[in-house]
């Protein structure tokens, strides 16, 4: 039972850590108008999948995919800038700094919650071994 709880919390730690890494990458590319693919950077999103709880599996969560946000790319007026169209507009990444920071805070809180649960399970396991 104890190891199942540890595995479940560990899966949450791993998934949220990857989510924080992806959000950080989004923030780092908020001004990237030209990628190796040729267009502006597209915000990346992490998709989670719940693992079912069973006798063989402790449950938990895994990252099922990292997908690009298909949302529209905003235009910014910047004539003379490399990549500007004939009207002087440049396609910018679809990364919203404010919502990304909120997502980063939520991922950080979820990570902390899993770390606390993991720590509490370890403490309970140590206490049970002393009895």
Describe this entry's structure for a reader:
The protein is 47% helix and 21% strand. It is α+β, with helices and mostly antiparallel strands and 131 residues long. It has one domain. The strands form 2 sheets. It has a two-stranded antiparallel sheet with strand order 1-2. Strands 3-4 form a two-stranded antiparallel sheet. A hairpin with a 4-residue loop joins strand 1 and strand 2. The model has no long low-confidence stretch (mean pLDDT 89).
- The residue ranges in which pLDDT falls below 50 over 5 or more consecutive positions are none
How many individual domains?
1
User: Globular, elongated, flat, extended or rod-shaped: what is the shape?
Assistant: elongated
Strand % is: 15-25%
N→C terminal distance: 17 Å
Class by alpha and beta content: alpha+beta
Q: Please compute the radius of gyration using only Cα atoms.
A: 21 Å
Number of strands: 4
Question: Strand order, biggest sheet?
Answer: 1-2
Mean pLDDT comes to 89
Series of secondary-structure elements, N-terminal to C-terminal? HEEEEH
Number of helices: 2
**Helix fraction by DSSP (H/I, runs of at least 4):** 40-55%
For the sheet with most strands, the description reads: 2 strands, antiparallel
Secondary structure layout plus pairing:
Blueprint: H1 2-28, E1 44-53, E2 58-68, E3 75-77, E4 89-91, H2 97-130
Antiparallel strand pairs: 1-2, 3-4
Task: Kindly summarize this structure in a few lines.
The chain is α+β, with helices and mostly antiparallel strands and 131 residues long. Helices cover 47% and strands 21% of the residues.
